[in-house]
Amino acid sequence: MRLRILGTAAGGGVPQWNCACPGCAAARAHPDRRRRHASIAVEAGPGRWYVVNATPDIGEQIEECEALHPGPGRRRSPIAGLILTDAELDHTLGLLRLREATSLNIIATGTVRAALSGGLRLDQVLTPYTGLSSSGGTTPQAPRDSPSPSAPLRSAPGAGPSSSGGTTPQTPREGLDSPSPSAPLRSAPGAGPSSSGGTTPQTPREGLDSPSPSAPLRSAPGAGPSSSGGTTPQTPREGLDSPSPSAPLRSAPGAGPSSSGGTTPQTPREGLDSPSPSAPLRSAPGAGPSSSGGTTPQTPREGLDSPSPSAPLRSTPGAGLSLSTGTPLPCKAPEPLDGGPLEIQGIEVSAKRPRYAAELDGGDGPWVVALRIRDLRDGKVVVYAPCLAAWPDDLDRALRDADCVFADGTFWDDEEPRRAGFSRRTATEMGHLPITGPDGTAGRLAALPAARRLYTHLNNTNPLVDPGHEGHRLLAEAGIEVARERAVIEL
Fold it and tell me: Is 80 within 8 Å of 105 (Cβ atoms)?
């Protein structure tokens, strides 16, 4: 089994953008001390890798690891999928950076998938880019290349027939689709008619929409009439909307008929859809038959698929970043990974929720797991546990059976968060067992029979981010390492 360490830092990385603590200051002065967010990659077969946790640094982590570089095909990536150990932001925000993926399996517990869909709404955010499926069936994929001027426009997510029985015009996305200066401006999400029965002026977003000083204003998301009974003028977004000063307002994705009974014009997206003003509308990725019984045309995505203007639409089983139909992470018993030489299992650790998910209903499975990976060829076992709020018996049994263990090294001692001044809670109260102290994990880790025992997920305040700190010597005497960035482990 071969592993690559892609990152070893807790949320924020080292240095953290808004921190001038000794660890961050030293990392700025000495770039070799920098640490990216904690993640590993495991080779599941020749030319097939799974990345464990999708961090905000995933783009840079891929570039720094030659084995993860695309090729030999133009759009072929050796990354077959992602395995998520929890729903924390520093382990999931990287999904947004993978929106160009045409096929990527996401393996997570039902609880984690529910949090990402219901809490972060990643399904809704990613669907227009990747054809993310929520139906459990095949996600129809679009050729994402064709420069054909007759390529059909696609509808905004959720758009359907209007209340008058006709079809609601769909959203050309300017700056991505039609370059026409007469493209209508679009309204902000949630905008509708004003209290006076007229239309709320929409918001040109500066630096994104029309640079014209006379362009009509659009409403901000959810904006309505002002306290004086008039409408609140909104901000033009330069460069993303129409440069035409006379361009009409456009509705947000999913908008229906206007208060006057007509339909709200939609937004052309320049460069991704057809530049032709007469191009037919196209449906969003994953769309099925239309309300009239016909098939809704799918979306060619320029620059990613066939450059042929006549290239047919493709339907790729399982393609896209699928949260709700991705592979469930097995927790009760190990299961083979992609039918290859590895099997995986999630070992329940705790019910620690991300802050954004505090009020969400739990899904099927635990919130936080340690990932157990076993090589069926020689029986070697790795356990990756970057977030330890507890040390349950099931975890202890899995660790005692492992040849290599990665453990949560967020904080050196329990008082570190208070001493550093960024929290009133202790490390344990924040959901991370400290390395040292009465409840520290170093003694337990030292007692394990594993040949390799490593700490990862270091906070920027942890003194171990300094390679010269005395803690490195103390841990080494106990047979424990601090994981190194970009290291390769072979078992």
Answer: yes
Tell me the pLDDT of the chain averaged across its residues: 74
Provide DSSP, 284-326: PTT--B-TTSSBPPP---TTTS---TTPPPEE-TT-EE-SSSS
Tokens of 109: 């517990």
pLDDT-wise least confident of 52-61, 128-137, 179-188: 179-188
Query: What backbone phi and psi angles, to 5 degrees, belong to 382?
Result: -120, 140
Q: State whether residue 201 is helix, strand or coil.
A: coil
Contact 141, 270 (CB under 8 A): no
**What is the spatial distance between Cα 303 and Cα 129, in angstroms, rounded to a whole number?**
13
Nearest to 39 by CA among 101, 99, 91: 91
Residue, of 335 and 201, whose pLDDT is higher: 335
Q: How far apart are CA 91 and CA 109, in angstroms?
A: 14
Could you tell me the CA-to-CA distances from 341 to 79, 181, 375 in Å, in that order?
16, 56, 6
From CA 203, how far away is CA 363, in angstroms rounded?
Answer: 38
Helix/strand/coil for 255: coil
Please compute Rg for the chain using Cα positions. 26
Q: Are 427 and 420 within 8 A, CB to CB?
A: no
Query: Buried b vs exposed e over 58-90: b needs ≥16 C-beta within 10 Å?
Result: beebbebbeebeeeeeeeebbbbbbbbbbbbeb
2-135+322-490 architecture in CATH? 4-Layer Sandwich (3.60)
**What's residue 128's pLDDT?**
82
* All CATH 3.60.15.10 domain ranges in the chain, comma separated: 2-135+322-490
3-state helix, strand, coil in the chain (%, to 5): 15, 20, 65
Q: Which long-range contacts (CB under 8 A, 24 or more apart) does 351-360 make?
A: 352/86, 352/387, 352/389, 352/431, 353/87, 353/115, 354/86, 354/87, 354/88, 354/89, 354/115, 354/119, 356/89, 356/115, 356/119, 356/120, 357/87, 357/115, 357/119, 360/114, 360/115, 360/118, 360/119
Phi, psi angles (nearest 5°) of residue 274 = -75, 135
What are the tens digits of pLDDT across the range 216-242? 434 344 444 444 444 444 444 443 343
Only one residue has tokens 């160009």, namely: 100
Can you list the pairs that 230-234 forms with residues at least 24 positions away whose Cβ atoms lie under 8 Å? 231/194, 231/198, 231/200, 231/201, 233/201, 234/188, 234/201, 234/202, 234/203, 234/204
Q: Output phi, psi for 464, to 5 deg.
A: -70, -10
Which residues does 419 contact at the CB level (< 8 Å), separation at least 6? none
- Secondary structure element (H or E) that encloses residue 91, with its range: helix 89-92
Q: Which of 101, 94, 162 is nearest to 127 (CA)?
A: 101
